[in-house]
Each structure stands twice: as C-alpha cells, then as structure tokens.
C-alpha cells in the first residue's frame, strides 16, 4: 500500500523503503488502491490476495537487491 500510494502521487520510489508496522491511510483507501491497480475489473477476494501477495514479494526482493539500491546504481538506472 505504501508503494502504491506514493506511486499514485508521483513520488520517487527509488529511495523509498517499506516501513514495517507503520500505518498509513485507512482500510478503505488501501482497498481502493488495490482495486485500482490489480488489473481486473471486478476481482474476487482471492484475486486481490494474489495481487497483493505477488506485489509484496516483488517489492521485498527489490528492496533486498543491491542492484536496486540508489547508492549502488547512482543515476545510471534512474526511474527503472
């Protein structure tokens, strides 16, 4: 949710890191963003769960990768 919220606002995601246990927004705002970005017009709860699960794994792996660290890549992959 934290990434999607910043993405919608046009903020730079390259330097953002997930903040565990931090609460942002409301449950309704979270659901609205998931529905907007999941890519399915009328998703089931299972489809929303799969979307959030997959997105979470991808973002966690991205944060753990040295190749996605701004200090490592500097400005060579800006916005990638």
Derived from helix and strand composition plus strand pairing, the structural class reads mainly alpha
Strand content: under 5%
Global shape: globular
Distance between the termini: 20 Å
Which segments are poorly predicted (pLDDT under 50) over 5 or more consecutive residues? none
Keywords: Ligase
GO cellular component, one term: cytosol
GO molecular function, one term: ATP hydrolysis activity
Protein name: RN213 ligase
Describe this entry's structure for a reader.
The chain has 80 residues and is mainly α. It has one domain (1-72). 52% of the residues lie in helices and 0% in strands. It is globular, with a radius of gyration of 14 Å. It starts with a helix and ends in a 7-residue tail after the last helix. The model has no long low-confidence stretch (mean pLDDT 86).
Give a brief outline of the structure:
With 80 residues, this protein is mainly alpha-helical. The chain is built from 4 helices and no strands. The mean pLDDT is 86.
Keywords:
4 helices, globular, 0% strand
Topology:
Blueprint lengths: L1 H7 L18 H11 L7 H20 L5 H4 L7
């Amino acid at each position: 949710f934290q990434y999607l919220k910043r993405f919608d606002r046009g903020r730079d995601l390259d330097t953002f890191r997930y903040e565990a246990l931090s609460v942002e927004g409301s449950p309704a705002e979270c659901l609205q963003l998931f529905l907007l970005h999941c890519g399915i017009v009328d998703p089931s709860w299972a489809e929303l769960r799969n979307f959030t699960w997959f997105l979470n794994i991808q973002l966690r792996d991205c944060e753990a990768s040295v190749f996605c660290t701004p200090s490592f890549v500097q400005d060579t992959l800006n916005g990638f």
